[in-house]
Amino acid sequence: MDSYLLPLWISCKTVLVTTAITFILGIAVARWMARYSGKYKGMIDGIFILPLVLPPTVVGFGLLMLFGKNGPLGEFLSLFDMTVVFSWPATVIAAVIMTFPLMYMSARAGFEQVDVNIENAARTLGASEWRVFWTITMPAARPAIMAATVLAFARALGEFGATLMLAGNIPGKTTTIPVAIYFNIQAGHTDKAMVLVFIVLAISFVSLAALTYWKLKIPAKP
Amino acid sequence: MLEVNIKKKLPGFDLEVAFSADSGIMAMLGPSGSGKTMTLQCVAGLTQVDEGYINLNGEVLLDTSRKIDIRPQVRRVGFVFQNYALFPHLTVRDNIAYGIRHLEKAESDGIITRLMENMHIASLGHRFPSQLSAGQQQRVALARAIAPEPRVLLLDEPFSALDAVVKESLEIELLSLQQFYKGIIILVTHNFAEGYRMSSKMAIYESGRIAQCGDKGKIVGSPANLTVAGLMGFKNLLVGTVSQIIGQDLYLEVPGLSLFKIRLPEQMQLAVGMRLTLGIRSEFVRVSAAAEENSLPGVVSGVINEVASTRCFFSAGANLQYTFEAFLPPPADASLKVGSRLNFCFPTEHLVVVGQAGETAQTGSLAG
């Protein structure tokens, strides 16, 4: 039984923490970029979207270089006796990097679709930028934000390539469901793999329903 | 009083305007894209200017020379956007309450209820903007902007999206708004008749500049240039030279037509030989018996029957080279048809001098 429960447990932790971090980071950066009109906007946008375009194993490789024994962040963290490679936090780091572009792009599109007049109206009525964001922009962009979150969640659940590179396959510690599926097939335990596949399928269908629901609520472009 | 003097470079033209406005309604009139909305946005602080000064009731809102730029949140300038910009996720009541949330609930509730009654939207409190008609949305937008008692109320083409019937009743409501809103109201519109109806003072925009600003009667009585004249509805122009000035009368000789007499306008340096352009609204052109003052024989070239008037085009001049337009009462008989030869009259009292008409002015009906 624990060959199902353990990966399920690891994935649960990873996906929830990842979604929370990506949610906050994605919205914050999307908000900044939606308003930013500097010279380098296109370039910065490109950097944020990069993990979406690169093969996950390449991203994983990059992360390994960064956090590995001889990498800059790896050396810095070892001063505090912390290693990222092959630890559970690595699953979160890999998943956040891979899901961030999705959250960022969708949230930014959502913010840019909000009628600037309603934000301006709020300003003339005395609302500070903070209050405009929380009481006007976010509610108006809610369907887009929710759709983005579901997307990020689903992506985090299915994250494999980068996770395997950085976190490895340590059952009970870093083996997420996708990794467990792969290694079960490798070891010939097709039946175990199938159970895990069904679990993921079930969660995916629910996600798809939620995603469709929210996407339908996004107002059509005028 | 609101004093504005701003400059802003824009793609296409440079905005450079200076004006002042007092309590009451001032209309900003001009073609789309001439800078009216941009001016409102600058007054509200929603858009930056390159250079400028804005003073509202003694408080300096903007002074680029001293690096003062008060943010829109505290300028106390109310704004009604062209598309109303109601908050779609809030009810009508919450929309109106948005600007006064810092007040005690009892007080803000009282303000909102009173406003909703005055604006005839008392029963709509729990509805959402998507459930309102355009006229209702506009009233909510107005109530929301007035609730925090702004010192200036800026209305950006508030009536442009409404059909004629709703527009009429809302115009009357806006006028009666002044019973409980005593601040300065600036109304932007591209519709001259509407601007004239609603305001006491007007500013006429032309490519980022104000061509003429002042009491509406003065503008209609002496338009500063061709654009203003055109906007004011002076469809017919007479371009000629001053041939005589006798006492209070001035005679203009228009090539190919006769002499036209007008009263000598005050405050204008006019001399014999000067080139002058006169304008007259189509409504004031009459059919007359022959040999009246300012009459000209013409041949009817087009007739359009409107509900309560007849729009008539006629050619005049030695070679019938000029075409003019007249709005006449519906003909009692069938005398008004293409080809009819009639005497038309441009009454002295309705001819106005168009200032700075320039070289492009031509006798005849303004195109359009």
Outline of the structure:
With 222 residues, chain A is an all-alpha fold. Chain A has helices at residues 2-35, 41-53, 56-67, 72-78, 88-113, 116-124, 129-140, 142-158, 161-167, 177-186, 190-217.
Strand content of chain B: 25-35%
Q: What's the CATH H-level homologous superfamily of the largest domain in chain B?
A: P-loop containing nucleotide triphosphate hydrolases
Shape of chain B: elongated
Biggest interchain interface, per-side counts = A-B, 17 and 26 residues
CATH architecture of chain A: Orthogonal Bundle
H-E order of chain A? HHHHHHHHHHH
Under the CATH scheme, the architecture of the largest domain in chain B is 3-Layer(aba) Sandwich
Mean pLDDT of chain A: 90
Query: What's the CATH topology label of the largest domain in chain B?
Result: Rossmann fold
Cα Rg of chain A: 20 Å
Protein name (chain A): Molybdenum transport system permease
Membrane topology (chain A): Multi-pass membrane protein
Keywords (chain A): Cell membrane, Membrane, Molybdenum, Transmembrane, Transmembrane helix, Transport
Transmembrane segments (chain A): 6-34, 46-66, 86-104, 193-214
Q: What would the keywords be for this entry?
A:
heterodimer; A: 11 helices; B: 368 residues; alpha+beta; 6-stranded mixed β-sheet; 21% helix; 35% strand; ATP-binding (chain B); ATP binding (chain B)
Explain what this protein looks like in three dimensions.
Chain A: Keywords: Cell membrane, Membrane, Molybdenum, Transmembrane, Transmembrane helix, Transport. Chain A: It is a multi-pass membrane protein. Chain A: Residues 8-209 form the ABC transmembrane type-1 domain. Chain A: It comes from Dehalococcoides mccartyi (strain ATCC BAA-2266 / KCTC 15142 / 195). Chain A: Belongs to the binding-protein-dependent transport system permease family. CysTW subfamily. The complex is a heterodimer of chains A (222) and B (368). Chain A is an all-alpha fold and 222 residues long. Chain A has a single domain (2-217), classed as MetI-like fold, CATH 1.10.3720.10. Chain A has helices at 2-35, 41-53, 56-67, 72-78, 88-113, 116-124, 129-140, 142-158, 161-167, 177-186, 190-217. Chain A is globular, with a radius of gyration of 20 Å. The model of chain A has no long low-confidence stretch (mean pLDDT 90). With 368 residues, chain B is of the alpha+beta class. Chain B has 2 domains: 2-228, 3-Layer(aba) Sandwich (Rossmann fold); 229-335 and 342-362, no CATH class. Helix content of chain B is 21%, strand content 35%. Chain B contains 8 helices and 22 strands. In chain B, the strands form 4 sheets. In chain B, strands 7-8-9-3-10-11 form a 6-stranded mixed beta sheet, with helices on both faces. In chain B, strands 12, 13, 14, 15, 21 and 22 form a 6-stranded antiparallel beta sheet that branches. In chain B, strands 2-1-4-5-6 form a 5-stranded antiparallel beta sheet, with helices on one face. In chain B, a hairpin with a 4-residue loop joins strand 1 and strand 2 (14-21). The longest helix of chain B is centred in the N-terminal third of the chain and has 14 residues, at 105-118. The relative contact order of chain B is 0.12. The model of chain B has no long low-confidence stretch (mean pLDDT 88). The interface between A and B is medium-sized, with 17 and 26 residues.
